[in-house]
Amino acid sequence: MFFADTGTAVIWLARHIRGGRNRRIFGSFSWASMANAAPNAFGAQLAYPGRQTIALCGDGGFTMLGLGDLLTQVGRKTPVVQIILNNEAFDFVKIEQQEGGFIPFGVDFKNSTNFARVAEAMGAKGIRIEEPGDVREGIAEALAYKDGPVVVDVVVDPFALAVPSHTPFHAAKGFTLSVAKQVLSGRMDSVIKTLVRNVDLI
Ligand SMILES: Cc1ncc(C[n+]2csc(CCOP(=O)(O)OP(=O)(O)O)c2C)c(N)n1
């Protein structure tokens, strides 16, 4: 069972993970409540102990709710796999602000948290992935671990644009306006990074 946080996690899930009869997908799709994936996966794991539960979490969402629950998971030895997209931002809101034509504001948190080490300190298994080449091995290790909760802290590119499958005209227009404002206000550095890092993605 896959669970995705409201945030860019839900966009990546929609684009890359297929559901099916034996592979269920859950999210806060109509309520859009943040930080849902880890607690949802925890509850599902308790309800269906034989199934594998995988939560795709934002670093904001996991900090907001997941960390507290992690202690309870450790106490119960509940094998929930929590994968954190560590982008040091409330990226979904950053995208919304840009769609609205604004310069992103108050959505970055540069704190370089190592969630794998935090998890280890709390008694869970922690895996840190910093290089794309280490993803396969790190995820395989997490999925094979059955003795309790796992936290996979994945350092992802904060400039990778999570583009929805459908982009309405007003969103593209707002985004263009935002980029123009960023250029005019001297934020060329982040504009160039956004362009360069997304050439392959779009
Ligand atoms: C309870 C709640 N608070 C705030 C929001 C608004 N909101 C939606 S996504 C988001 C940011 C999520 O950040 P993070 O978990 O780090 O994921 P990212 O988008 O960076 O991948 C916020 C603040 C919400 N939907 N629900």
Topology record:
Blueprint: E1 2-4, H1 8-16, E2 25-27, H2 37-47, E3 53-58, H3 59-76, E4 80-86, H4 91-99, H5 115-121, E5 125-129, H6 135-144, E6 150-155, H7 169-184, H8 188-198
Parallel strand pairs: 1-2, 1-3, 3-4, 4-6, 5-6
Description:
The protein has helices at residues 8-16, 37-47, 59-76, 91-99, 115-121, 135-144, 169-184, 188-198; strands at residues 2-4, 25-27, 53-58, 80-86, 125-129, 150-155. The chain has 202 residues and is α/β, with parallel strands linked by helices. Helix 2 packs parallel to helix 3 and helix 4 (91-99) crosses helix 7. Thiamine diphosphate binds next to helix 1, helix 3 and helix 4.
End-to-end Cα distance, whole Å, is 28 Å
Bound molecules: thiamine diphosphate
> How much strand?
5-15%
Instruction: Give the uncertain stretches in residue-range form.
Output: none
Major sheet: arrangement of strands: 2-1-3-4-6-5
Largest pleated sheet? 6 strands, parallel
Helix content range? 40-55%
| Rg over alpha carbons | 18 Å
Our count of helices gives: 8
| Quaternary state of the chains | single chain
Mean pLDDT across residues: 94
Number of strands: 6
Would you tell me the structural class of the helices and strands?
alpha/beta
Order of helices and strands: EHEHEHEHHEHEHH
Shape by Cα distribution: globular
